[in-house]
Amino acid sequence: MDMGGGRLIRIMILVLVMVLVWKIWDYSSLPVLEPPSFNADSEIAKGIPSNLQSDQEQNSVLQAPVDEEHLEVAVRPTMRIEIYYEVLCPDSRNFIMKQLTPAYEKLKDILQVGLVPYGKAETQEKNGKVTFDCQHGPRECEGNIVHACVTNVIKDEAKQIAIVHCMIDRNEQPMVVGKKCVEKHGENWGKISSCVTSDKGTSILKHMGDMTHRLKPEVTFIPTITIDGSQDDQKNILKDFHKVLCKKYKGPRHPSC
What does pTM read for this prediction? Predict the structure, then answer.
């Protein structure tokens, strides 16, 4: 009986070993599972709803650090500048050539410039006819009208200033120098000449006179410059216009300042 019992045990052990071997072989034949890929092109990524991906992208942008010091300013506020001058005045000539032009070249993206060539002239109206009495005589009145017509006919502000700069350097013969300077900058002298010799030129200069006489406080020195309507700091404006503009500018610091 003992030998029969031992034999049964050996058979049972053999069966168990065979079952275990079979199980091991069965599991080894299963495919190996790879970890999921989170590539943008993977099937899992494609399965994410587009609105969820969009939200995730927006969140990543919002969380990115921002260096405010190096942000570009898309639009800068501008300052309105008005130059009240007369064409045969040495101080007007000096200001336009040595202060206005170089300052404008550096700061033109933040400036709006209005040229008012009238100065200390007086407007006379008699029997429907308008005449002018200018500080430096009739030749200055003629020159003032040429400058006034340039500011009216030529719409490009940079060209206006360039032509006025050119003319005021030698303004003793307004029509001669006017033609030379206007054509030098590629503009049509015929339109300017027609303005000067017609009632249009007279009307424009009269308007310039009205602007000058409306100034508060009244003009006592030519040139007088206003910045956003203010006549403050005239001494420093005439000495270093660029520096004063930089100081008074209310927008972000300009690169040239």
Answer: 0.71
